[in-house]
Protein: Iron-only hydrogenase maturation protein HydE
Organism: Anaerovirgula multivorans
Amino acid sequence: MSKELIERLYRDHYLTREELVALINHLDDEGKKLLFHYSLQTKIRHYGKKVFMRGLIEFSNYCKQDCLYCGIRASNKKVERYRLSINEILQCCNEGYRLGYRTFVLQSGEDFWYGEDKLISIVKKIKGMFPDTAVTLSIGERGKTVYQKLFEAGTDRFLLRHETASKSLYEKLHPTMDFKNRRTSLNTLKKIGYQVGAGFMVGLPGQTAEDLAEDLHFLKELSPDMIGIGPFIPHGETPLRDAVGGSLEDTLVMVALARLMIPEALLPATTALGTLDPNGREKAILAGANVVMPNLSPTKVRPLYELYENKICTGDEPAHCRGCIEQRITSTGMEVDLGRGDSIQFQKNNSKFA
């Protein structure tokens, strides 16, 4: 049955929720091998052998939210908090540009110290200094007006994982947040014109195959430009410290299924996968992922942006990080691309980038 479902998914880019649940629950080693083969072929058909490199800048670990799984949650009083100044952020971009990056991903907790004016100033200065780059923000939920003004200031992309498409699971894990508002925010970002990224974690406590099938159907409906999928890794200073984490294999399966369901999306090989397995990112690339995000943050703050424990690459200088990741990409038979790396969907809708 698995082979038939995988072949139909490869052909039609669609399975019902019930079919996805059956596939997830009964996927054996042979089925995984076939799934990964088809997901890689699908990636190559749409993007060739390119793997896009983005420069990641984690500019603040302050967060007003209290998500049960996150190491920088507001209730964790053991975190040494930090904020990068505008000049420090620009220095990171300058170093990244020198190394060849043409996309900068600015990520933080939900830190409203960086208000509308500060964020607009940061984006405008980056675009003014480096007009041929794309700027991605990953800063959580803001109002529609702020999203609109940041877009007008030059922000190209916005990453906002939906976390889980299960309302009950979302509400359990996010006591300070609202399930409906998360979805509304994603739709608002898309309507404004951003390249939008969504995504979810695999292996969350209480998560079922039905939940994962719902995640894939939500993504199919949203049709985001980017999909971030990573394993749940417990953090010792959270309520889920003793929970069992997600596995590499289960996460790779979801990456591959997402590639087949939404074939034109950009899919990161996440750092969390590299934390679970020294070759985790390479395995994700061979399962259909085509984005990696080496860290450009100052080495002094990297260990402090600890969403989960034992995060890799916290001590590497940007140049070393870039070289290491480039070697990892080429070892899979793929090719490094340091350009903007816009999604196929975006290129189709914006002919000036085609």
Notes: Strands lie at 50-53, 55-60, 103-108, 134-138, 157-159, 195-202, 226-231, 291-292, 335-337. The chain has a mean pLDDT of 96. The first helix runs from residue 2 to 12.
